[in-house]
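Following up on my earlier thread - several people asked me to post the actual chain instead of describing it. Fair enough. Here it is, all 384 residues.
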Amino acid sequence: MAVFSHSNHLSLPLWDSFTLVHELNSTKFELAASHSFISELLQQLNSTNLLVEALLIELTREHERSTQKVASLLSGKFTADLSVGLPDEVRAALGSHKLPLGKSPMTGLDEVIALVGASWFKFQDELVQYMTYEIGGECPVDNVFAQRLLLKGCEPLPRRRCHPKSPLNYVEPTPFPEHLWAKALDTSIIWDPYSCKSYQCLIDRNNAPGVFACKDCFDLHGREKNRWLFDKGLDYGIDQVLSMKPRGTIRIGLDIGKSSTFAARMRERNVTIITTSMNFDGPFNSFIASRGLIPMHATGSHMPCLTRFDIYRVLRLGGLFWVDHFFCCGSQLNETHVLMFDRIGFRKRWNTGMKLDRGIDKNEWYFSALLEKSMTQDMCSLFS
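Reply from S.P.:
Thanks for posting it. Predicted structure:
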């Protein structure tokens, strides 16, 4: 018979009092060091939080200041910090001016707000340069610089209190109707901003090497003489287009062009056309005016790519929208323009032709179109 014995208590190692005290002190030291490290971490965390909060507050304030600056510029009112460093003439041109008789019942305002382009906020150095001149004296001949500002979105330019330089030996213009097709007089404009110094030089560009904006626009006895007279393919004749409407009902229009020959042909048919243009190394707007026609110096920022809503907004009922030799890529032709005109719903005439001067592989196209806004068609059904 086997006999087993066991103990009813747990055996633990024996420690002397010195060792226990040493271990306890070491543990206390380590705990104290840990507490100190945690305290430092908390302090650093608090400092970081305060720094982040301060940065967020400053970013918010800077955003508010920027927003206020833009809003002030758009409304014609300048905050104190926006006008700091700007000459008096700049602030006078861009600031608001109180009306002498108080609030106007027509506008509800008691001040006149300056009409200037919002991009001036981004180009203050150029603004100061443009507005640096002798008050009451002759304006600087800075047409190229001014047009560059227009292309940057600074449109319209602020008005200046100076008078433009006058041409020497000015001669009265050719009378109507000969002026529509007569060569403009060299003495009618200032040639300082342009590389050519006469209209004959501009006419001769047609046979000169190089790339120019509308090389043959100034030669009124060349290609311009026969434009819009004949109706074939992409070329629509003015008489054929006008015959679509009752005689005399087409009276005014807008031409986004350069030479104003379209406006001249319409003028011969008692239709008034405003022609938009830019002066790209040539006096296009002065040339248009010399023909007794109405120019409008404007950039594409006021005339973005037309949508069907723009066409509907501008055209009267029964009005015509004429697209002449519009250039685009093949993919844009089908995916953008055809789709847009189909959605408008009043396509009248449509012609396409491939642009071949750079090769067929470029897949470049022209299209011409004539649209007539319906007298009865419901807009809601078109835009749904």
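Strands lie at 97-98, 111-112, 252-256, 272-277, 294-297, 320-329, 347-355, 364-372. That should answer part of your original question.
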